[in-house]
Design goal:
The chain is mostly beta strands. The protein contains one helix and ten strands. Strands 1, 2, 4, 7, 8 and 10 form a six-stranded antiparallel beta sheet that branches. Strands 3-9-5-6 form a four-stranded antiparallel beta sheet, with no helix packed on it.
């Protein structure tokens, strides 16, 4: 067999193979988008939303770290609807040799406006502690102190102390919307 016949045969086989690929159309891929209503997937039991609605009741919850270098280490925004403060708590540790007063109060939204006191306590120098306020009634109607107008603020203040106290801690605020319409 002649070498040129082998080369021609080889080229013919390659041409047939390449021609076969060229004749086949590429498959058409149809793009579809699936939109599902529901909760979606979460990788843990933690819900990233600051609120959850169940049974027609919407609850908002915040857990923030204290800001240092200010007498108002926590400002927590209330919902944009009328709401009731269900619980507020401040867990703090200070590095000041003198006592400090910690307050939990309601502010109308302008931080320069006056506040309505909800709870207060004194923390000993170089101390640590937790102050908790709750709207759980004790056999009487709430007096409105725990009712927040839309976009008001829950504020935590610290006064007193000598030198740099730089509080370390967290503030928690839980609100329940009072005018939420069930879905």
């Amino acid at each position: 067999m002649n070498k040129s016949n082998i080369v021609v045969g080889f080229l013919a086989v390659i041409a047939l193979v390449l021609g076969g690929f060229a004749m086949n159309k590429p498959a058409t891929v149809e793009k579809t988008t699936v939109v599902e209503k529901g909760l979606g997937a979460l990788s843990s039991p933690d819900i990233p939303s600051p609120y959850l609605t169940f049974g027609g009741v919407r609850r908002w919850a915040y857990n923030i770290a204290m800001t240092q270098g200010t007498t108002t280490p926590c400002i927590i925004p209330a919902p944009a609807a009328t709401s009731t403060l269900v619980k507020a708590s401040v867990t703090v540790q200070v590095a000041s040799s003198t006592a400090q007063t910690i307050t939990i109060a309601k502010n109308a939204g302008n931080l320069n406006a006056s506040t309505t006191l909800i709870a207060a306590a004194t923390l000993a120098g170089n101390g640590q502690g937790t102050l908790v306020a709750s709207s759980t009634p004790t056999g009487a109607l709430l007096d409105g102190t725990n009712t927040f107008a839309p976009s008001a603020n829950l504020v935590v203040t610290m006064t007193g102390g000598q030198g740099t106290s730089n509080p370390v801690g967290r503030c928690i605020g839980v609100f329940e919307e009072t005018n939420n319409t069930p879905n």
